[in-house]
Amino acid sequence: MQTVDFQHFPLRAGDVVLDLGCGEGRHVISAYLEQEVHAFGVDLSHADLTATRDKFVPFAHADNDARSFGLSQANALDLPFADNTFDRVICSEVLEHIPDYQAVLGEIQRVLKPGGLFCASVPRRWPEKICWALSSAYHEVEGGHIRIFAASELREQIEERGFDYYYRHWAHALHAPFWWLKCLFWDSQDSNWLVRQYHRLLVWDLMDRPWFTRTLERLLNPLLGKSVVMYFRKELSA
Q1: How far apart are CA 119 and CA 230, in angstroms?
Q2: Domains and their CATH numbers in the chain
Q3: pTM > 0.90
Q4: Smaller CB count within 10 Å for the chain: N or C?
Q5: pLDDT tens-digit readout, 133-190
Q6: Nearest to 221 by CA among 151, 168, 173, 167
Q7: For residue 154, how far is the Cα from the chain centroid?
């Protein structure tokens, strides 16, 4: 389930790309497949990194390919990379989990090269507020969401760090009702018929990508998209 749109976040051959908080690897693997880049995924969870490694195996190119792939267990507050290391940084659905997210933005600013691109995505405010209203466990669970972002405020905070904003879109409209159902039936979500049937729909959409659901999501994203995705360029003088 890819959130970043590489049409708005173009990768060039030879770029060094960081997926910060890569989870189980959806974007670091996608970046590796998109272009001949050096893709690095960083996460605090060893289990997620192991899952990423296992998912990556079928996609690995020949040894003589110009691209490379790497994973590292590290804290987003103290990245083990030198200043100005990366040409592109992705931070997708991560900042809402971290108490000191401003320090994470500072680390992104530090490791991204001047002129480099940064993509940040977070849960959209109004669908997220419904989730919080329907279930306290949704955001109180360990590792859950600890804040609801206003996209305009997050954009301003990133711009204040020497980034130029250049594009925004929304993503995953079909997933918003799914999470509302999960929150509504939180204690029985694994066995609830509605939740299970909606999950089947999402799996079908993900695996088969039928024209109907792809078109429906594209039309609904501006209204119902669960994630807001923003794109920035680091100023040359920053």
Answers
A1: 6
A2: 16-123+139-172+227-234 (3.40.50.150)
A3: yes
A4: N
A5: 999 989 888 788 999 999 999 999 999 999 999 999 999 999 999 999 999 999 999 9
A6: 173
A7: 15
